[in-house]
Write a structure and sequence with these properties.
Strand content: over 45%
Structural class: alpha+beta
Radius of gyration: 29 Å
Protein name: Stage IV sporulation protein B
CATH class of one domain: Mainly Beta
Oligomer: single chain
Number of helices: 5
Largest sheet: 6 strands, antiparallel, barrel
Keywords: Membrane, Transmembrane, Transmembrane helix
Number of strands: 27
Length: about 425
C-alpha cells in the first residue's frame, strides 16, 4: 500500500515538473510564437493559447520596409509594437516587441500571353538517316552515342545557339578533317564525343543525322504581377520540348500579349486548345528568366490590367486553401479577360510540384465554349475568398471538366531563385 502511494506521489511530482518546464519554455518562446501568429493572421494571437494567454499592445510604431517573403520582395507596412503577455489576462508573464507585417499582395493575371524562348544550347529532338553516295543510310551521331534529348553546347570548341550554327559547324569540320568534336549535356552530365559526319548527296553538305531545335513558342496565361517589383509568374508548369518532353533550359525568351481567335473544345480523351496569335504591338512584354516546375518567371514592362481587380489582392497561403467554390480568370475570345466559376474538389498540401489541388469547372458558359479546362488556359489565376491562391496547370485527359492547380505559394517559392540570382 505504501509503495502504491509513493509511486503516485512520484508521478504527480513528475507531472508538475513537466508542466513547470513547459511553462518556462513558453515564457521564452512567447515572442516568437506571437510573431509567427501575427504574421499570418494580421495581428491576431490565435491558437490553443489564445484563451489562456492574452496579449496587450502598447506603443505602436508604423514604418515602411522592404521585405522578402516566399522569395518575392515587396514594400509593405510594418508595425512594431510592445506587447505584454498575461495569464488569463490577469497575471503578468512576459513582455517584448513584435513586428506585424501586412500580407503580400499581387495583381491576378488572366491575360493571354504568347511565349517564345530560345534554348540554352541546341536540343536534339530526333534522329535522321544520312544517305551517302552509295545510297546507304547512316546515323553518324547515333553511332557516336548522341541521343534524343541531349543538348548540344559546343561544336569544335565553339558555342552553338541555333540549328543553323550546328549545321554550318558540322559541314565545315566534315570538309576540313572528316570528324567533329561535339560537347553536349545529358541531364546533369556534360559529355564530349567524336562524330564522323557523312557527305549527304541530297543536300550537298556534311551531316551527322540529327533533327535539332533551338527555340519554342506557344500560348498560355499570365498568373500574377507584383506591382512593386514588376516580377511576374505565368503558366503554372514547366515548359518542356514537344518531342522529347524534357525541360527546356532557357537561354533567352520573352512574353507578349496574344489574342485568341478560336477554341477547340475539349472532350473525353482529347484535351481542347486555345488557338491564338501574338499581338504585334503588345501593350506589355516580359523577359523569361526562369523555367521551373511551377511556371515561368521574369520582369514585366508595359501596362497590365485586370478589369476585375483595380488593385492588388492578398495572397492565400497553402494553409488557407480549402475545398469549395472559387473563381478563375482567363481569355476565351480576343484579349478580354473573363471571370468563371470553379470548385476546388481536393487540396493536396505539402506537395512542392504543380499539382496541389483538383479544380473542376462549374461555370455553364465556360463548359459550353471550352468543355472545361483546355490547353492555353495554364496559368489562369485562381481566387478564393478574395485571395489569390493559385493557378490552373493541367487538364485531366479523360475528364476535361477537371484539372490540376498549383499553389501560388509554390510559384512564389520558385520565383525566389530569380531574386537570388539578381542579388548575387
Amino acid at each position: 500500500m505504501e509503495d502504491d502511494k509513493r509511486v503516485k506521489k512520484r508521478s504527480i511530482l513528475l507531472l508538475i515538473s513537466l508542466l513547470f518546464c513547459t511553462f518556462l519554455q513558453l515564457l521564452v518562446e512567447l515572442p516568437q510564437i506571437h510573431q509567427t501568429q501575427v504574421s499570418h493572421t494580421e495581428s491576431n494571437f490565435k491558437g490553443i493559447w489564445s484563451n489562456i494567454i492574452q496579449v496587450e499592445k502598447t506603443s505602436p510604431n508604423h514604418e515602411t520596409v522592404s521585405v522578402a517573403a516566399s522569395g518575392v520582395s515587396h514594400s509593405q507596412i510594418s508595425e512594431k509594437m510592445d506587447v505584454a503577455y498575461k495569464l488569463f489576462g490577469i497575471f503578468p508573464l512576459s513582455s517584448g516587441e513584435v513586428e506585424v507585417m501586412s500580407p503580400i499582395k499581387l495583381i491576378p493575371g488572366g491575360q493571354s500571353i504568347g511565349v517564345t524562348l530560345q534554348t540554352k544550347g541546341v536540343m536534339v529532338v530526333g534522329q535522321a538517316p544520312v544517305v551517302d553516295k552509295n545510297g546507304k543510310n547512316s546515323f553518324p551521331a547515333k553511332e557516336a552515342g548522341i541521343q534524343v534529348g541531349d543538348i548540344l553546347l559546343k561544336i569544335e570548341n565553339q558555342e552553338v545557339k541555333t540549328d543553323q550554327e550546328v549545321s554550318n559547324a558540322i559541314n565545315l569540320a566534315g570538309k576540313q578533317k572528316g570528324s567533329v568534336n561535339v560537347l553536349f549535356k545529358r541531364q546533369d552530365q556534360v559529355v564530349e564525343k567524336t562524330v564522323h559526319p557523312i557527305f549527304c548527296v541530297e543536300t550537298g553538305r556534311y551531316r551527322m543525322g540529327l533533327f535539332v531545335r533551338d527555340e519554342a513558342a506557344g500560348v498560355g496565361t499570365l498568373s500574377f504581377l507584383d506591382p512593386v517589383t514588376n516580377l511576374y509568374g505565368a503558366l503554372g508548369h514547366v515548359i518542356t520540348d514537344a518531342d522529347t518532353n524534357q525541360k527546356i533550359e532557357v537561354y533567352d525568351g520573352k512574353i507578349i500579349a496574344s489574342t485568341i481567335y478560336a477554341i477547340e473544345k475539349g472532350k473525353r480523351g482529347h484535351p481542347g486548345e486555345k488557338i491564338g496569335s501574338f499581338v504585334p504591338n503588345s501593350i506589355f512584354s516580359g523577359t523569361i528568366e526562369k523555367n521551373t516546375m511551377t511556371g515561368i518567371f521574369g520582369k514585366m514592362s508595359g501596362r497590365i490590367e485586370n478589369p476585375y481587380f483595380k488593385e492588388a489582392i492578398p495572397v492565400g497561403w497553402e494553409s488557407e486553401v480549402k475545398v469549395g467554390p472559387a473563381k478563375i480568370y482567363t481569355v476565351i475570345q480576343g484579349e478580354k479577360i473573363e471571370e468563371f466559376a470553379v470548385n476546388i474538389d481536393r487540396v493536396m498540401k505539402n506537395r512542392t510540384d504543380s499539382k496541389n489541388m483538383i479544380v473542376r469547372v462549374t461555370d455553364p458558359r465556360l463548359l459550353e465554349v471550352t468543355g472545361g479546362i483546355i490547353q492555353g488556359m495554364s496559368g489562369s489565376p485562381i481566387v478564393q475568398d478574395g485571395k489569390l491562391i493559385g493557378a490552373v496547370t493541367h487538364v485531366f485527359v479523360n475528364d476535361s471538366q477537371r484539372g490540376y492547380g498549383v499553389f501560388i505559394q509554390n510559384m512564389l517559392n520558385d520565383s525566389s531563385q530569380l531574386d537570388k540570382k539578381q542579388a548575387a
